[in-house]
Amino acid sequence: MPEIPLVPLHWHLPAHPKSVRRARHAVTESLPPALRPNLGDDLGLLTSELVTNAIRHGADGRDDDLIELVLWSADGHYWLAVSDPGMGKPALAHPGAEAESGRGLLLVDHIATAWTVRPRPTRGTSVVAGLAYRGGG
């Protein structure tokens, strides 16, 4: 009989800056305790950057805009998908030394084992990033 995979964890949060902290906490606390020392900080940073980008660039400012997070484990990775209603395609930027923002995806690119941008089937965009892990999960 095949091993039954875990059901992905799923959250909907308002597209509001206060949701960044809630998202980071929800995702890191969902990790198995044995993996938190190794993955917690990186997964928390990925969550913060992706949710912040989704709020700033993917939401159109309506009160009913939601950011969706999905977390699952597969193939030796923890995968995080952060989705927003926007139609833009996030891309790496290389801001100058004086720039005060624009480095979020550079951090994601540096921390994640792999990441990509996918259009949603109906409306919006998802950024999916994975972190490799060994055992404990």
From TrEMBL:
<keyword id="KW-0067">ATP-binding</keyword>
<protein>
    <submittedName>
        <fullName>ATP-binding protein</fullName>
    </submittedName>
</protein>
<keyword id="KW-0723">Serine/threonine-protein kinase</keyword>
<keyword id="KW-0808">Transferase</keyword>
<keyword id="KW-0418">Kinase</keyword>
<dbReference type="InterPro" id="IPR003594">
    <property type="entry name" value="HATPase_dom"/>
</dbReference>
<dbReference type="InterPro" id="IPR036890">
    <property type="entry name" value="HATPase_C_sf"/>
</dbReference>
<dbReference type="Pfam" id="PF13581">
    <property type="entry name" value="HATPase_c_2"/>
</dbReference>
<feature type="domain" description="Histidine kinase/HSP90-like ATPase">
    <location>
        <begin position="13"/>
        <end position="127"/>
    </location>
</feature>
<keyword id="KW-0547">Nucleotide-binding</keyword>
<dbReference type="InterPro" id="IPR050267">
    <property type="entry name" value="Anti-sigma-factor_SerPK"/>
</dbReference>
<dbReference type="GO" id="GO:0005524">
    <property type="term" value="F:ATP binding"/>
</dbReference>
